[in-house]
Design a protein that fits this description.
Radius of gyration: 21 Å
Oligomer: single chain
Strand content: under 5%
Number of helices: 17
Distance between the termini: 41 Å
Structural class: mainly alpha
Shape: globular
């Protein structure tokens, strides 16, 4: 690869990082939940608690992420974050009790917090001058790829080996990926004597940099009122996004669909999520983030609503019900693209250049807190409503609608 295009190698490393931290540790892990619940006799609430503990560690790690990367830098910090995933999945492989799985979820949760969109977004902001939204989308698409590949691979492996052996195999894969990430990532283009990708010499680089500095005062500092509204939107996005994706398999499993079919649904979400993220990046670069936000928030609200009708799909004939389920999760997967990478794009458009890192951290922190607050809600509601997760997705529909309206208001107030 030519040096002037090394930014795309950084993008690949970022995608691999997100594949592990979000695609496997978070989204793809949903496929393990029914197996853990059934093999070790956990209740629905205890199963959801594994998600909640991971989200707690995600939230806690985000509180200290600034100090973490100041001490270790992006390259070393991202590498170490994958090490937590390796340790967490090894702990999953030897866990036999509910508390053993909780401990493993806590360690793996550090990867989800320290190795996800914050370091990836900062890297893309450092390495890309043009196509920044596309680069962020490609990185984030790693989580969708995880949702595509992990369910069928795990289902196939579990037919040949034990749950513990599968966890150890994944830990070994993560260890290999950890080495790849360290070899590729560089903290800044200047380490290789480069400028940012797309920062062409139509004038001096210094002139381009000067233009960027001038752009910040024109946009001005982000008003406190807009910041509060945007953070509230991110909170609600997190409240429905991460817990929702983690519980899609058990939602349809509880309505009578087979475990294998539910794994397929998670892969379909992954495909829709991957395509949606790349499309979101392209659309954002072309028409701006306000228009793309409106379009993809529409998908998000509609997808949650369709999934809240999972009982209808389960009550119809096998073929019709399966088709309804596939359509529902496809729309939801496309909508999840704005839920997951929205905070990174919104920070880049609402904040001035100098505020970017701080605003991004605040958005991600509120997103993580929202996911933490509702992490156990689906399991609690399922235990209360006879094992059905439909009420949880009805709640997620309302939360997605409220989050969408708030972000539109934030953009309009920002002008």
């Amino acid at each position: 690869m030519k040096k002037e295009h090394y930014a795309w190698a950084i993008c690949f490393a970022g995608a691999l990082l997100i594949f592990i931290s979000m695609g496997v540790v978070s989204n793809g892990f949903a496929i393990f939940l029914p197996y853990i619940r059934d093999e070790f006799g956990l209740t629905n609430a205890q199963t959801s608690a594994l998600v909640t503990v991971r989200l707690i560690m995600n939230f806690v790690s985000l509180l200290f992420i600034g100090i973490y990367y100041d001490r270790l830098n992006i390259r070393l910090g991202a590498t170490v974050s994958v090490g937590f995933a390796v340790a967490g999945f090894f702990m999953y492989s030897i866990a036999k009790t509910f508390f053993g799985f909780l401990a493993a979820a806590a360690v793996a949760g550090l990867t989800y917090g320290l190795g996800s969109m914050v370091p990836a977004s900062i890297l893309m902001n450092r390495w890309f001058y043009r196509h920044k939204a596309l680069a962020i989308s490609i990185c984030s698409a790693g989580s969708g790829v995880g949702s595509i590949l992990v369910p069928p691979v795990i289902t196939g492996l579990l037919s040949m080996m034990s749950l513990g052996q599968v966890f150890r195999l994944i830990a070994f894969f993560m260890l290999t990926s950890m080495a790849v990430i360290f070899m590729i990532i560089r903290n800044d283009p200047h380490e290789l004597g480069l400028g940012r990708c797309g920062e062409y010499h139509s004038g001096l680089k210094e002139a381009a940099a000067s233009d960027m500095v001038k752009a910040a005062p024109d946009k001005g500092r982000l008003p406190a009122s807009v910041m509060v509204i945007a953070c509230a939107s991110c909170f609600l996005m997190g409240a429905q996004g991460n817990p929702g994706m983690s519980h899609v398999p058990v939602l349809y499993n509880a309505e009578g669909f087979t475990t294998v079919f539910c794994a397929t649904l998670l892969s379909i979400i992954g495909i829709a999520l991957t395509v949606g993220k790349i499309a979101l990046g392209e659309i954002t670069d072309k028409i701006g983030s306000y228009g793309s936000t409106v379009v993809f928030c529409g998908f998000l609200v509609l997808g949650n609503f369709l999934c809240s009708m999972a009982g209808v799909a389960g009550a119809t004939s096998d073929q019709t019900g399966a088709m309804l389920a596939i359509i529902s999760v496809s729309v939801l997967g496309a909508g999840y693209s704005i839920s997951t990478i929205g905070p990174s794009i919104w920070a880049g458009n609402l904040a001035s250049e100098m505020e970017y890192a701080g605003v991004l951290r605040s958005f991600q922190l509120n997103y993580a807190f929202g996911a933490l607050v509702t992490g156990t809600v689906p399991g609690i509601l399922a235990d209360h409503f006879g094992g059905s997760y439909v009420p949880a997705f009805a709640l997620f529909t309302v939360l997605a609608l409220a989050a969408s309206v708030l972000m539109v208001i934030a953009y309009r107030k920002r002008g």
